[in-house]
Amino acid sequence: MDESVERVDLRPGGEWVDLGEGRQVWNRLTIRRTPNGDEPEVRADVEVRYDGVPECREVRILTVGAGRPVRARDLRAFRLDDLIEAGFGLAVMQPAPLSEMARRHGVSEGDWVTGSTGKQSDEAIRHLRKKAKNRRVTDELLRAVAEVYRANVDRNPTQAVREHFDKAPSTAALYVQLARKRTDPATGARFLGAAIKGKAGEQ
Q: Considering Cα of 148, then 179, then 137, then 24, what sign does the dihedral take?
């Protein structure tokens, strides 16, 4: 099955995630592989985590119009990682290059554009892989995150985490999220308790 990506849709209810180095991406995407001829269409619903790593939540392979039915070989030939990476590369937004060609096509300073070439898309994917490889959140770090969070629970604790560790807002939110999910081996309890709906703190 050809994994070329024809379209990436931004689903409602999402928000922009900062990837660093002037890049950002919408965190709720549908990546589509448009069929060639009568082949089925592939759609992957992807959510991008606060640390910029895309995760697939649902995959659909559908007959389009009067096209042929879905066959077992379509499932065997499907390469999910390739589809996600290609779609993610197309979805990443970056500041518009203010070249003469860009100006000629109506791009102005402050505009954002997608990676319009294969090279730009590949750079976005390499950036993602490097970020995922270098990401290491230790128990010691989460223990410190929980301490900072609790000490500032009455005054925007996630912002306090961001300021204390000098991280981007998305990274601070990720640290808090991981502290709520991961268990402290020293105590057997979560580093932070579950969130309270509508306000800061822990249950």
A: negative
